[in-house]
Amino acid sequence: MTALHVFQRPQTTEPIQSLSRFDDIRTFLSQAGIVLERWDVSGVDKRTDGAQLLAQFHDSIEALKQREGYQSADVIALTPDHKDRIALREKFLQEHTHSEDEVRLFVHGSGTFFVPVGNQVVKLVCHAGDLLRVPANTPHWFDSGEYPDFVAIRIFTNPEGWVGHLTGRSTFY
Predict the structure, then answer these.
(1) How far, in Å, CA of 52 to CA of 31, rounded?
(2) I need a labelling partner for 79 at 20 to 30 A (CA). Which of 25, 85, 105, 118 fits?
(3) How far apart are CA 132 and CA 105, in angstroms?
(4) Any residues with CB less than 8 A from the CB of 158 and at least 6 apart, and which?
(5) Is residue 140 part of an annotated ligand binding site?
(6) What gap in Å lies between CA 63 and CA 70, rounded to an integer?
(7) DSSP string, 93-147
């Protein structure tokens, strides 16, 4: 289930606010310019290959591309036995920005996005069916977990994909 927790900076161990209702989470995030949608992923098998997933969601992805100007999409899958899981986790745990929106549709599993907003940090746990759009140039980081198990469709403005620009700031709350 999608969940949102807000932490005060400097680091606090307990959230100052937690939300679990999807509509409440979507409303909260919209105040920071972040878009959260719910897409139907019923019937998706985590073993479905990338080409099949892109075909399955073709019409919805194309509608989003037309509406927002995105140009391409691909699929990323991380599993607990992925040979680069530790290095990928460490890379994504660093605060960074992108010169374009970061758009992810989780079709299996979950992952956690962190977005600093003023003197707070928003922790958003995304699950299958969550489509998240973090606006361009918004600092954030992502935790796939120690043993990641997710499949996500990534949607890009630049057909070559996105490049992360490290901010050099600490990712601790």
Answers:
(1) 35
(2) 25
(3) 6
(4) 71, 72, 100
(5) yes
(6) 10
(7) TS-EE-SS-EEEEEEESEEEEEEEETTEEEEEEEETTEEEEEPTT--BEEE--SS
**Quick check: 44 and 56 in contact, CB under 8 A?**
yes
Q: What is the pLDDT of residues 46-84, one digit of tens each?
A: 788 999 999 999 999 999 999 999 999 999 999 999 999
Burial (Cβ within 10 Å: 0-12, 13-18, ≥19) of residue 2:
buried
C-alpha dihedral, 53 to 57 to 62 to 68, nearest 10°: -100
Element (H, E) at 51: helix 50-56
Q: Centre a 10 Å sphere on the Cβ of residue 3 and count the other Cβ atoms it contains.
A: 18
Question: Is 96 flagged in the annotation as binding?
Answer: yes
The pLDDT tens digits of the residues spanning 88-147 come to: 999 889 999 999 999 999 999 999 999 999 899 999 999 999 999 999 999 999 999 999
